[in-house]
Design a protein that fits this description.
Layout lengths: L30 H17 L3 H20 L15 H19 L4 H17 L4 H21 L1 H5 L5 H10 L8 H18 L7 H20 L8 H7 L14 H12 L2 H10 L3 H14 L6 H11 L4 H10 L5 H7 L6 H14 L5 H6 L12 H11 L5 H10 L3 H14 L2 H8 L7 H18 L6
Helix pairs in contact: 1-2, 1-3, 2-3, 4-8, 4-9, 5-8, 5-9, 7-8, 11-12, 11-13, 12-13, 13-15, 14-15, 15-17, 16-17, 17-19, 19-21, 20-21, 20-22, 21-22, 21-23, 22-23
């Protein structure tokens, strides 16, 4: 079986030595001839200078694989682990040479683009300190300058000029480095220009090498730039102004003293910063208690997102906080917990939170909890009634009146009476007033208060 060109190459006109003829493999290949053939391929691989040379080596390796497959080679003794395996050894040699071809190829323009895109992702996704941002901007500017030297024509024809993008970012604030989005845009512009340049691995090898050297420098600069994660927790907090609220006299620990001051000032972002940064159970508890005390003052998009994430894990302190915040964003999550009869403590917290939120979507699920034939714990049902009163939706009047009329538990009936008084419509008050003379003190008390409210309504307004 013949492989490659059997004729030796003519000597070059300029006196260069003749090109070595491609190796050939006899039709009846043996282990020895196959080994010699692979040795010659290895020599050609070592001498390869262009992608075309490597293509020739790959073609020879394909022939070698065919030769090995067709050769009549001795098979190893399956019972002897140390027995020779000529075919396996030759196949391993081919695989090794293929790896050598892969290692020898390139680099290509695509490798440069991949490196630039990776660096752009690092710039965009990393949280840099102020000093780090300055170092990142310097590294990107240096890279853009180096890229301009390597592929000046391609950058000149690019849709966006990376140097202009950087200058535009710096113009917004001469004292600050270009913003991250401008840095990323500049890197994307260079990557696009490299793609458009369609660099050839052979003809443009020097430009590709220069660009890869520049990307190496860029990556090194990004590695050296300071990230927030590089700082100790207290340094991060200090850098972000967490301790700035402290005077000369501090409680211990100082993080707690600062937290109390941030709570007093309504600095929600700083409380969230402490909650995220300080991992002790002590500080976590105090941060959450601060939010609970702040109530609606502590409600921001960021704080609701943080607390709701905890509530989605059935965290009861977080659910209480959402109630004090009147965070309507939590309604869908909390309504899902209403029928969890196996966890009465969770239900109590959820019912109150829904009431404080005023979640009208919860009216029917809460009303279902008043059913004396249901599985809800008897100690939980009064909380469902009170939640309905806090919500104040008139759709709750009928189920509350039914509970007041017929529920076997006086605690549930009294809670239903209280809830009807909170709703406060004439229909609701009349339903409670009917029980003013009840034998049950807690129920009759609600009835008397409802009757007094109706009497107040009936009194004519004083004349001027």
């Amino acid at each position: 079986m013949s492989n490659g060109d059997d004729d030796p190459a003519d000597a070059a006109d300029d006196g260069e030595p003749a090109e070595t003829a491609a190796p050939t493999l006899p039709d009846d290949a043996t282990e020895e001839s196959l080994t010699e053939y692979l040795d010659e391929i290895a020599d050609r691989l070592e001498a390869a200078e262009t992608e075309a040379d490597l293509d020739d080596v790959e073609a020879l390796l394909a022939d070698a694989e065919t030769g090995i497959e067709e050769a009549d080679l001795p098979e190893p003794d399956e019972d002897d682990e140390d027995a020779d395996d000529p075919r396996g050894d030759l196949e391993d040699r081919v695989a090794e040479l293929r790896d050598g071809v892969d290692d020898a190829r390139g680099p290509y323009g695509e490798d440069v683009v991949d490196a630039i895109e990776s660096a752009a992702g690092t710039v965009e996704d990393t949280e840099w300190t102020d000093d780090g941002r300055e170092d990142v901007a310097a590294a990107v500017e240096s890279f853009v300058d180096a890229a301009a030297d390597a592929i000046d024509d391609a950058l000149g024809d690019a849709d966006e000029d990376p140097e202009a993008l950087l200058a535009e970012g710096e113009a917004a604030d001469a004292a600050a480095p270009a913003p991250v989005d401008q840095l990323v845009a500049a890197l994307d512009a260079v990557a696009g220009a490299v793609t458009d340049a369609d660099l050839d691995a052979d003809d443009d090898a020097d430009d590709i090498a220069a660009l890869l050297d520049a990307t190496d420098e860029l990556e090194a600069g990004l590695d050296d730039a300071e990230e927030w994660d590089d700082l100790e927790t207290h340094e991060q907090l200090r850098a972000q102004g967490y301790y700035d609220v402290l005077g000369h006299y501090k409680d211990f620990p100082v993080e707690w003293a600062a937290l109390k001051e941030h709570e007093a000032r309504g600095n929600v972002d700083m409380i969230l910063l402490a909650l995220d940064s300080l991992q002790s159970e002590f500080m976590e508890r105090h941060c959450l208690e601060a939010f609970e005390r702040m109530g609606k003052r502590g409600k921001t998009e960021a704080s609701v997102e943080e607390i709701l994430g905890r509530a989605e894990k059935r965290d009861q302190p977080a659910i209480r906080i959402l109630g004090t915040m009147a965070a309507e964003e939590a309604t869908d999550t909390l309504v899902e917990y209403v029928p969890e009869d196996s966890n009465p403590q969770l239900q109590k917290v959820v019912f109150k939170a829904l009431g404080e939120i005023g979640a009208s979507e919860a009216v029917q699920p809460l009303a279902n909890q008043l059913d004396p034939d249901g599985d809800t714990d008897e100690l939980v049902r009064p909380h469902a009634a009170r939640a309905l009163g806090l919500i104040g939706d008139t759709r709750a009047v009928d189920p509350l009146a039914d509970a007041l009329e017929a529920h076997p538990s006086d605690d549930v009936r009294a809670a239903a009476g209280w809830a009807l008084r909170q709703i406060g419509t004439r229909e609701a008050l009349e339903a409670v007033a009917e029980h003013a003379d009840e034998h049950s003190f807690v129920v009759s008390t609600e009835g008397e208060k409802a009757r007094d409210a109706l009497d107040d309504e009936a009194e004519p307004a004083p004349t001027a």
